[in-house]
Design a protein that fits this description.
alpha/beta, TIM Barrel, 2 domains, 9-stranded parallel sheet, 40% helix
Amino acid sequence: MSAPNKPQPTAPLLAQDYSIPLPPAITIDDAETLPPKCEPCKTDILSLFAKARSENRPLYIAAPMVRYSRLPFRLLVQRHFDVHLTYTPMMIAREFRNSNHARIADFSTCEIDGPVIAQFGAPNATDLVDATGFVKDYVAGIGLNCGCPIKEQNQEGIGAVLMQRIEVVESMLQAVREKFGRTVVLDVKIRIHADLDRTVDFAKRVAAAGADIITVHARLPKQRNSVPPNLEAIRRVREAVPREVYVVANGDCFLQVDTIKIVQATGVDGVMAARGLLQNPALFAGYERTPWKAVELLWSYAMEYGSPFRNIQYLIVEMTQGLLTKQERADLRLLKHYQQMEEWLDERFILKRRGEVGFAQLEFDGYRR
């Protein structure tokens, strides 16, 4: 894969400048920084699904989350808390294809990242094929978003509006298959229709067009998350599509026990969590709330690989619902940059850094000064 528009070297960041992302992670436009071999990137996720099915268990999956499922969070949940597969945030395929800045801002990886699916929002086959060509060698799969309800994206032909445009979805999947054959694993994330027969037909046509994985967020495009997911819809999709196409359930997974209920009700091959993992990245590892060591690990990955401050701030605020008081979390939201947050945390808590004795060891006791 070529690396067009290689960014020019910039001056090194000053150690005390915590207001901007710290050391940049590997990006696809900087070939010299790419690992010569990234085993997680090349993981055969279809084999992971097959093995899990043979062992009568689901895969645990972290959902694509706008802004938040970036590299530091992916490393946290996958390397330490039993998540088997992660996604990038949804990236706009056209911008990814056309803009060096968008590629640097939207996607980064490292030697221990993955397996990860790069998810794109695309309105047509050309955009999806071109974006796939940039990133396919550095991920384990490509995802097409047919579920995003954001009005502005839908007006551009991206996201949930595609649930009404099955022919467009078919053309995109067929074009990727024609260009790349079976070298690319294809995932399609959908929502449901009020008429579940339409959802079943949609899923069958998506499978026939070349999807390897169908992820079902079992709510209507305009339904709020307060509405329980329709597990019957997921069950019907699982029963309708061929067994070689893996089906994943998305919606209302907040505790590990929820996975049992979801699998029993639907027969799916994987369970995906979004809000549940934001609040507790360790939920699939059996924790009922975030252990303190998850905060230290996320901070360490953010310092090592870089992430916009507001992303890490939001994640720590969400993760600490069971660790900090309501006032402490409110204070965290007022901080403006990394240096302030580091000082705030160090004043109140024992925040171990990588290499220090006891790093990432504490769970629920002993982290306060």
